[in-house]
């Protein structure tokens, strides 16, 4: 399912036409019409507006087609690329990559102060799955490496 189809899935889920959807997210109606017709891809600005208005939509699903359309839990301010629900669902990710220690320091007033220190450990190499380039005119291109080809 491509990005245009995912946007249309949200419209269908909400029972909205492209004009109503455009009004709902605060974009010009012709822009939405061009997206629905396949003439243009949605800009980053439009994707952000969709995520701000429909907070149940998963950022990873909308941008990359990964996972389910609906988030497990909804945060009050979605941020592209970082979802609270996913971070909470994978606490072991942080445990693998860093370890937290606490040091107590006595101050002049003899009140203990807790300082948290994060020690980062080396991570295994990661493979690139997709590169997205965002342009000043709010359009973007997505590049996917060929399978089986390593540089």
Shape: extended
Largest sheet: 2 strands, antiparallel
Neighbour order of strands in the largest sheet: 1-2
Count of separate DSSP helical elements: 7
- Estimated helix fraction: 25-40%
SSE string, helices as H and strands as E: HHHHHHHEEEE
Radius of gyration, in Å, reads: 21 Å
Overall pLDDT score = 76
Provide the low-confidence segments as ranges.
Answer: 75-100
Number of strands: 4
Strand content: 15-25%
How many angstroms separate the termini? 28 Å
Structural class: alpha+beta
Describe the structure.
By secondary structure, the protein is of the alpha+beta class. The chain contains seven helices and four strands; from the N terminus they run H-H-H-H-H-H-H-E-E-E-E. The strands form two sheets. It has a two-stranded antiparallel sheet with strand order 1-2. Strands 3-4 form a two-stranded antiparallel ribbon. A hairpin with a 5-residue loop joins strand 1 and strand 2. Helix 2 (18-25) crosses helix 3. The protein is extended and about 55 Å long.
Detail the topology: elements first, then pairings.
Elements: H1 3-14, H2 18-25, H3 29-37, H4 44-53, H5 59-64, H6 84-89, H7 91-97, E1 98-106, E2 112-120, E3 131-134, E4 140-143
Antiparallel strand pairs: 1-2, 3-4
Helix pairs in contact: 2-3
């Amino acid at each position: 399912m491509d990005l245009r189809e995912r946007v249309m899935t949200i419209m269908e889920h909400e029972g909205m036409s492209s004009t109503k959807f455009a009004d709902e997210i605060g974009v010009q109606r012709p822009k939405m019409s061009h997206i629905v017709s396949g003439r243009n891809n949605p800009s980053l600005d439009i994707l952000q507006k969709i995520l701000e208005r429909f907070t149940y939509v998963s950022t990873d699903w909308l941008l990359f087609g990964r996972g389910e359309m609906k988030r497990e839990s909804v945060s009050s301010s979605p941020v592209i690329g970082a979802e609270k629900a996913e971070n909470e669902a994978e606490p072991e990710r942080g445990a693998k990559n860093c370890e937290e220690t606490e040091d107590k320091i006595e101050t002049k007033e003899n009140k203990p102060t807790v300082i948290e220190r994060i020690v980062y450990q080396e991570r295994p190499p990661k493979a690139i799955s997709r590169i997205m380039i965002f342009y000043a005119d709010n359009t973007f291109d997505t590049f996917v490496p060929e399978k089986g080809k390593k540089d």
